[in-house]
Amino acid sequence: MDLTFKRKNGEIDTKIDELLETVGVHQPKIIRDMIINALKAGVSNDYPADLKLMRTTMKEMRLTSEVFGPYRSRRKVTIFGSARTQSSEPIYQKCVDFARLLVENNYMVITGGGGGIMEAGNKGATSENSFAVNIKLPFEEHTNKVMANSERTLVYKYFFNRKVAFLKEAHAIALFPGGFGTLDEAMETLTLIQTGKNPPMPLVLIDDDDSNYWEDLFQFMRNILLPRNLISGEDFGLFTITRSVQEAVDVINAFYQVYHSSRYVDGTLVIRLNQQISDAQIATLQEEFRELIKEGGSIRACGVFDQELDEPDLWDLPRLAVDFNRRNHGYLFALIRRINSFFNA
């Protein structure tokens, strides 16, 4: 049967409507599209492995939403780092201190739920302020003792679903030294932020006191990637390297001093703010950040767009509409820092 998302499926549409009404779902239009998608997959694909992947992906995304949903009002920081870090190592205790400091500043912590740095992050935050986003692996897979019995522990089959949770639910990312997995998470986070596929958020790289793990890595980028124009100089504004856990928390706090969040509406970047900025300050932004504005575009105050009505908790926030060129994301971070600077003591 040739199914369509338009209401041209006759009896099938009637049955889906009856099912939605019987169950009593939220957002029936969206759920209808999901049902149609599932039916179309069943009609067009008879390969069990493909269908199982779709089924498991939806299940894991649903569980992610169920676990994180009740805590939407609290900002969260995802902590990445090695599962092999021993509790006797100084960097382990540094992560414990960092997570504890985050909770003191009303953040929750998300980790991969395993040992090492992940355990340190959950330990510092305590289970009451933590999430564990674990993965099924042949080794290094067991949930750490802090989160073993927590209702905020998830265990994924697929890495890509786990990675979505790490970033979708986070308001900042903190990276501690680690192996291939940590470097993968670092590069993926940088790529998503650099390309604008992830909303702007603070990215802090926390180094050992007696080594230059992150500094050495980015020195390679400065010496090799930058001269070949494989990255841009502004990309180094997407992150902060520090040895101080207090500085790392200060960077995260400062990012959200005035800036609240952002989204695109018909190609326009809408920046939501925690407080109103003046016309003179907007004119300053327009002058200082002409390079990131599309030709003929502007930065201007605006109200709530119709497309934002799906986020009722944000309707009252002041807004800026930015005709962003969607290329210079390092400059976009600089714009956010400049907005925040208007209210620095």
* Main CATH class of the largest domain: Alpha Beta
Task: Write the element-wise H/E pattern from the N-terminal end onward.
Answer: HHHEHEHEEHEHEHEHEEHEEH
Tell me about the largest β-sheet: 7 strands, parallel
Q: For the terminal residues, how far apart are their CA atoms?
A: 65 Å
Beta strands, count: 11
Which stretches are poorly predicted, pLDDT < 50 over at least 5 residues?
none
Lateral arrangement of strands in the main beta sheet: 4-3-2-1-5-6-7
Tell me the domain tally. Answer: 3
Helix content: 40-55%
Fold-level CATH name of the largest domain: Rossmann fold
Averaged pLDDT: 95
The helix count comes to 11
Strand content: 5-15%
Short key terms for the protein model shown above:
345 residues, Rossmann fold, 3 domains, 7-stranded parallel β-sheet, 4-stranded antiparallel β-sheet, 11 helices, 43% helix
Description:
The chain is α/β, with parallel strands linked by helices and 345 residues long. The protein folds into three domains: 11-44, no CATH class; 70-255, Rossmann fold, CATH 3.40.50.450; 259-341, no CATH class. Helices cover 43% and strands 15% of the residues. The chain is built from eleven helices and eleven strands. The strands form two sheets. A seven-stranded parallel sheet has the order 4-3-2-1-5-6-7, with helices on both faces. A hairpin with a 2-residue loop joins strand 8 and strand 9. Helix 1 (11-23) crosses helix 2 (28-44), helix 4 runs parallel beside helix 5 and helix 4 (90-104) packs parallel to helix 9 (245-255). The longest helix is centred in the first third of the chain and has 21 residues, at 48-68. The chain is globular, with a radius of gyration of 22 Å. 30% of the residues are buried.
